[in-house]
Design goal:
Elements lengths: L3 E2 L10 H5 L5 E2 L9 H9 L11 E2 L19 E2 L2 H6 L3 H10 L6
This protein binds iron/sulfur cluster.
Length: 106
């Protein structure tokens, strides 16, 4: 089980979640590392606004399900587990989080 970033993050990418994650497992929108610095750089240069559906992702293999990121997200984009995300109609994003890190959700 892992926390999952859902559709509400798309084109928003606040990085508050990244700053509180104790195991540094939130990245995106393009690179699987960078811990939010990538978003800040892309927003600074304006490139961010030309990206197709940019969002942040959680590495399910590293997430320890501490829940710290949830309260930091201003648009409530983070689910506490895959089942919750699926229940809320965000199954596609469960797969997106896993696939971003080369993982597969079963
Ligand atoms: Fe990081 Fe904890 Fe959120 Fe998992 S639940 S992504 S470990 S802050």
């Amino acid at each position: 089980m892992s926390h999952i970033i859902g559709r509400k993050c798309v084109s928003f990418c606040d990085t508050g979640c990244v700053k509180v994650c104790p195991v540094d497992c939130i990245n995106g929108p393009i690179k699987i590392d960078g811990l939010g610095m990538e978003v800040e750089e892309l927003k600074k240069t304006g490139e961010f606004y030309n990206l197709d559906k940019p969002q942040m992702y959680i590495d399910a293999d590293t997430c320890i399900d501490c829940g710290a990121c949830i309260a930091e997200c201003p648009v409530d984009a983070i689910y506490s587990n895959e089942n919750e995300a699926i229940r809320e109609g965000d199954e596609e994003y469960v797969h997106k989080n896993y696939e971003f890190y080369g993982l597969k959700f079963n």
